[in-house]
Structures are given as C-alpha cells and as structure tokens.
Write a structure and sequence with these properties.
This protein has 18 helices and 6 strands. By secondary structure, the chain is an alpha/beta fold. Flavin-adenine dinucleotide (FAD) binds next to helix 9, helix 11, helix 15 and helix 17. The site of flavin-adenine dinucleotide has 28 residues, from helix 9, helix 11, helix 15 and helix 17.
Length: 445
C-alpha cells in the first residue's frame, strides 16, 4: 500500500463502494502520472478489490477564462500523461463535455470514484455536483499542496507570517516521497475516447477564443522535471540573491507546470530540500508558504476574485484615495495593447502577451501601476485579473487572485499614506529604475 497521509483524503459523499468494473479516477487538477496521490489512492483501492483503474478527463470547451494558449499547452501535457498512465497498465479516456458529467457518464460501471482537489469556486462546485449524483462513493485526494489546506489552518490567514507559523511544524510530516504502486489488474477497457495523438484535431473540436495563440514552451511532466533539474543544477544557489532581478533568469519557471498539475509541489520541494544549500530555504518559502497562502486565500474567501476579498483596511484606504487625481487614465484597450507612457510597463505587458510569462518582480510593478492609471481601484483589480488570466500561462490559478490582490494590499501591511495608493505599499518607476534600470522588451524575451 502507498502511504498517503489521511489528511489528504476527503470523502465527498457517504455512499458505499459498489460492484463495478473499475475504480474510476476523474483527473482534473493533478494532470500527471507520477507523485499524484489521487492516482496512487485509486491504484491501492483497485488492487484491494482486484479491479483495474480507469482515468477519465472531461475536456470542457468552456473552462473559465481559458483560450487557445491554455488549451494547446494543457493538451500537450495530457498527451504525455495519458501515455505514461497507459504504460502503467491504467486506462485513460478523454471525452468532450462538462467534466463532472463525463465522470458521471462512466460512474455506472465504477466501484468508486476518486478525484483530485481543486481550490477554485468552479472546481469545488464540479466535485460537489458529482458527489451528489454518483451512484457510488466519491473520494477526493489532495495532491497539489505540500500541507493539505484544511490541516494547515482552519481560516483565512491574514499574512504569510501567520501561515508560516502553522506550516513549519507540519512540513516534515507531509514532505514525503510518493512511490508508484503497480496495478495488479491491468486495464483492458474499450471505452470510447478522443484520440490524443493529434492535438490539432482535438483543438479543432473546441470553440474557444483563438485570439491568444499557443506559445513555444514545452509542456508536460517531462519538461517540468527537466526544468527542475536545470534549476537545481544551475540556479538554486543564486536564487536567494538574484531571484528578484528581472534581468537575471534565476527563478525556476515552474509555475505553469504547477498550475496544470503536471508536476507535484511535493516532488519539487523534496528535490530542492535534498539538494539544499544556499537558496533552498528562500525557494521553499515561495513554493510552500507563499503558494499555499494563495490556496488558503481562495479556499476560505468566497469573494477571492472581487473587491470584497481584499482586507478591510485596504478597501478603506483605496476608497478614500479613489478620487485623487491620476497622472493619466488609460482605457482597458490601451493597457492591453501596451500603449502607456511607461516603457517598463509596456515591456512587461508586451512580454506577457507574447510569451505568456512575466518575472515576479516585474509582475508586482505591472499590477501596482494599474492603480495609478484606472479611475477606481476596483477597475485596477478587474483589469489586472483580466489581463493576467488571459495571457499568463500560469493564470487562473489561486496565485493569480492572490498576486493581483497583493498589489492592492492583500496579505500585506499598511505603509505611510500617500496619494492614490493610500496606505497600500507603493511601487514607482523611479524606485524600479534605481534598482534595475530601464527594462526593455528585448530583455524579457
Ligand atoms: C500581479 C501578480 C500576478 C500573479 N499571477 C500569478 C499567476 O497567475 N500564477 C502564478 O502561479 N503566480 C502568480 N503570481 C506569483 C508569482 O509572480 C509567480 O508564481 C512566479 O513569478 C512564478 O515564477 P517561477 O515559477 O519562476 O517562480 P519561482 O520563483 O521559481 O518560485 C517557485 C514557485 O513558488 C511559487 N511562488 C513564487 N513566488 C510566488 C508568489 N509571490 N506568490 C505565490 N506563489 C509564489 C510559484 O508556484 C512558483 O512557481 C503573481 C504575482 C503578482 C504580483
């Protein structure tokens, strides 16, 4: 049996296991064949009942805010995952439709359904929908956090410091390797499935926004592991000193892979802790404390994507300064097409549109400037989320809502009051240039 910490396992209904042809794993958030507790749990359960495992993936053309860029990248990763799963003797089926409906369409032959955990509103609603309608037991296994969100803290943490104190004593218990278990009954299932060998063909079935094109960055678990390996070898030891400098490439670039669940945060943290040395502690602070602060935020804050999700002091101070004169007001179209009078901001926005990525420090600057150029901070929040989620490959993530929210005071402390920002931490072009000079578009390629 694989050792999966009981705190990762959540029963979503009280139905029993039934007689079935397979244990169904509805894959949604953890799109990987390795270090995936939901998959290993399904294998254990199937072995116990002498059944094969069938993995299903419901491909919805209506995933919130997703466009061709996101779909193309996700499908490339899923192509590899399907192959890796099948090489383990596990069936893999992908069908077009509403994800929980796809799982339900395979539920009548399932002894039990296992799924992974997603933290956003629609992901939670999908799981609840399935649990209410499935004729069998539905079990959710949490694999995309080092410390399970409810085990870490029972409410929204006001700051990283608060969550860090909770996480630190728990990390050794949850930072453990997860070994694959061989399925004892191989899947010989003939369930109809989309053919993933031709991604272009699958994409042609989707009516999605095609205005944001795919980007040239390899997707999938293999690429994620390769990136991690290079990061450990060449960058980790410089990470603590140089990660904030946008002119250096010292960050891992793993966020898109984490967003699509192509690599486990536990695997990354395990490898980083194993290598150790300078940089490891700083990196683990970002990967575990900061990332799981975002998970904590969306899990416990129903209005995580709205003004009401910001701390009260930030709402009050920003509101009090909402009528302060702005140096310029730009329309959403001007912002989207990088037509401001700030070359640094324009470079950041253009890079985001073109490459789907943005360095963390520049991203903070990018988000903060929106406050200065929009008529109301509510508009800054709205346009920040819109641009981030539309263009960033790692967008539409708990980190997206926390990152944009942070620019407006979330998880931060009050600073001395000044125009427009009020007590929210400011960032100015002068401050940026003093630290890093003028960043050009080219430097961000
Ligand atoms: C305005 C704004 C918007 C953001 N939007 C997103 C987003 O859509 N998706 C996203 O994943 N991150 C977002 N972030 C957080 C951060 O910018 C990215 O996680 C980070 O830049 C990803 O690059 P990396 O993988 O090279 O990070 P690394 O520095 O290599 O860090 C490793 C991992 O730690 C986590 N991490 C690092 N920095 C942060 C942080 N500040 N907060 C939370 N987790 C962090 C990420 O999972 C990251 O992949 C946003 C930040 C801001 C200020």
């Amino acid at each position: 049996m694989t050792r999966i910490e009981p705190e990762r396992i959540h029963r979503l209904n009280d139905r029993p296991l039934t007689r079935g042809r397979y244990v169904l794993y509805w894959m949604q958030a953890s799109q990987r064949a390795f270090w995936n507790p939901a998959l290993e749990f399904a294998v254990d359960l199937a072995n116990e009942h002498k059944l094969p495992v069938l993995v299903c993936f419901g491909l919805t053309p209506n995933y919130p805010e997703a466009n061709l860029r996101h779909y193309a990248w996700m499908l490339e990763g899923l192509q590899q995952t399907a192959q890796a799963v099948q090489e383990r003797g596990i069936g893999f089926v992908m069908r077009l439709g509403n994800p929980p409906e796809i799982a339900l369409s395979l539920a009548h032959n399932a002894a039990a359904i296992v799924t992974d955990r997603g933290y956003l509103r629609h992901q939670r609603a999908w799981r609840q929908y399935l649990a209410e309608r499935a004729p069998c037991s539905v079990i959710e296994v949490e694999g995309d956090a080092v410390v399970p969100v409810e085990r870490a803290y029972s409410r929204a943490a006001v700051s990283a410091a608060v969550l860090r104190r909770r996480l630190q004593p728990l990390i050794p218990r949850f930072l453990q390797p997860l070994y694959e278990q061989a399925p004892q009954t191989r899947a010989v299932l003939d369930e109809p499935s989309l053919d993933l060998s031709d991604i272009g063909e699958v994409l042609s079935l989707l009516t999605v926004d095609r205005s944001v094109g795919p980007i040239d960055l390899p997707s999938g678990t293999r690429a994620a592991r390769e990136r991690l390996r290079r990061f450990l070898e060449k960058k980790l030891s410089f990470y603590a000193d140089l990660r904030s400098d946008p002119r250096q490439e010292m960050a891992s670039g793993l966020s898109p892979y984490l967003h699509f669940g192509q690599i486990s945060p536990v695997e990354i943290a395990w490898e980083v802790a194993r290598v150790g040395g300078p940089g490891a502690e700083t990196f683990l602070e970002e990967l575990i404390v900061r990332r799981e602060l975002a998970t904590n935020f969306v899990w416990y804050t129903p209005s995580y994507d709205r003004w009401e999700g910001l701390p009260r002091w930030a709402q009050e101070t920003l509101q009090a300064h909402a009528t302060d004169p702005r140096p310029a007001l730009y329309s959403p179209e001007e912002l989207e097409s990088a037509r401001t009078d700030d070359p640094i901001w324009n470079a950041a926005q253009s890079a985001l549109v073109r490459t789907g990525r943005l360095h963390n420090y520049l991203r903070m600057y990018w988000g903060k400037r929106l406050l200065v150029w929009t008529a109301h901070p509510k508009e800054a929040l709205r346009i920040g989320l819109y641009l981030n989620n539309k263009y960033a490959l790692d967008g539409r993530d708990p980190n997206s809502y926390t990152g944009v929210g942070w620019c407006l005071g979330l998880h931060d402390r009050p600073f001395p009051e000044r125009p427009i920002f009020g007590k929210v931490r400011p960032m100015t072009p002068e401050g940026f240039k003093k630290k890093y000079g003028t960043i050009t578009d080219r430097a961000l390629l």
